[in-house]
Amino acid sequence: MASGRILVLGIPQPQGNKTAFVVKGRAVLVEGRRKESRASFQSWRQAVAHEAAAWAKLSGLPAPIDGPVRMDVTFSLPRPKSAPKRVLHPAARPDVDKLLRAVLDSLTGIVFTDDARVVKCNVEKKFATTTPGAEISWQPL
Fold first, then answer.
1. Residue 127 domain boundaries
2. What was the pLDDT predicted at 108?
3. What is the pTM of this model?
């Protein structure tokens, strides 16, 4: 089992709540309420999955990890013009748990068999000094 580390560039997107609609008598669940937010969310998840799949291929990972995993994730978010330079961490939306949920779901089936395998996690949200993105690392325990 291999430890890994990837850097995903782009603006991290939270995995929001699901919205239900009834279409032809059947319930349909979709991420978020607005089409634009769904598109940016899907793009972010695809970027995370793409980087993880590239890492798995290069490292020769035979199969996703099927045991306990430790995660470290640092989200670098764009700094709003209104934020003073002395403020290093965004204490506002997006919620760190929703950002993490999007990453864990993106890694499921690639890095680990199920996000329930994550038993320890260190997550940080900070303002980007250069390009926004996420630094994601994992280690089997």
1. 4-140
2. 95
3. 0.85
